[in-house]
Amino acid sequence: MTILEKTESADPPPAQADSRGSKARTGSWRIVLVLLVAVLVCGILSLMIGNVGITSTKTIQVLFSSDGSQASAIIHNLRLPRTVLLLVVGLALGFSGALMQGQSRNPLADPGLLGVSEGASLAVVLAIFWLHISSPVAYGWFALLGAGLTAWLVFTISAVRGGPSPLTLVLAGAAVSALASAIITSIITSNVSTLDQYRFWVVGSASGRGLDVFWQVLPFIAVGVVLTAICTPAINLLQLGDDAARALGVRPGLHKFLGVCAVMLLTGGAVAACGPIGFLGLVAPHVARFVCGPDYRWVVPYSGLIGAIVLTLADILGRVMAGGAEVQVGIVMALVGGPAFVILVRRARLIQL
Fold first, then answer.
1. Where is the signal peptide (predicted)?
2. Which of 106, 232, 322, 327 is least crowded, fewest Cβ atoms below 10 Å from its Cβ?
3. Rounded mean pLDDT of 327-348?
């Protein structure tokens, strides 16, 4: 039996057993169904909870049949667009984080590693500073443009002989991210009006976003999801190294390029819709691996669904944790996501791929 035949017969690849020697964890469609139900429940809770509480019965009733009541106006005009946007953005960030960690073989990678988030932020700052843009919808287009140019720049810089490697991608991403951050800081510290507009966008929030923003970013995120589906089957072989993957019929350079494009579209769309949101793309894949093991054919879809769940719950928590005030979801993710990730790493050793 050849090496290729042995590899094909080992489908799916065996997951690593935990430190106690228990049965290896594997993914299953049953868990996918559970996560989908959890997404639905989180969506309903997001429609119910806020400064004005609405019962579950009333929520479901007016969701499918608007009756002109106050509850109907709140759900259809405010909470439904916000909830849909949160679910889609969480899905996009979960997917992009799993792709980044799998293709770079770096357990600390997240969508910000390639500088995509910083590039999108820089484009928004330049739009505010030079063009005096003030509309969140217009921010979205510039954020997408900045994310795309940054991803292309990082991929070009890191493409040494044989294509970009995990190390060159990380180094190029860190360098471009630092440069973009320096330019942003220099602009907002010297221009008060730009700072005033930028600081409301940069905290990360779905508050006040309408369905127009959702329809604007949906095509980019949809294409990113398709590219993710194309890249995912090869990630397990990329874990063996570029030479081994090439010997098994995978073209590492092509898959990494498609992966970078997917991360660009997913992260760019998410940042354009809600601003930069940290930790989610970092934490979701670790939680997914804890549930299903290291097989990326399960890690990627799990990460997307977990990202949608976590982001929606974080937004709900932000609505109730400060009484009548509201804490933006980006701040909640930083407050909750950081300590939660430390606990996960220390207790479950999720840092290991």
1. none
2. 322
3. 78
Q: State the pTM of this model.
A: 0.84
Please report the domains of the chain, with CATH numbers, ordered by start residue: 80-348 (1.10.3470.10)
Q: Other C-beta atoms within 10 Å of 270: how many?
A: 37
Mean pLDDT for 191-195 is 81
Residue 254 tokens, joined: 């092509």
Return all residues near 23 (Cβ < 8 A) that are at least 6 apart: 17
Q: Are 116 and 147 in contact (CB under 8 A)?
A: yes
**Six-digit token pair at 4?**
């290729």
Structure tokens at 351: 């840092």
φ, ψ of residue 249 to 5 degrees: the values are: 95, 5
> Is the Cβ–Cβ distance between 61 and 332 less than 8 Å?
no
- In 3D space, the residue among 265, 254, 253, 260 whose CA is nearest the CA of residue 165 turns out to be 253
Structure token digits, residue 286: 């670790």
Residues with Cβ within 8 Å of 256's Cβ and at least 6 positions away in sequence, in order, are: 103, 163, 164, 169, 238
The first and second tokens of residue 18, run together, are 């935990």
Q: What DSSP assignment string belongs to 180-212? A: HHHHHHHHHTT-HHHHHHHHHHHT---TT--HH
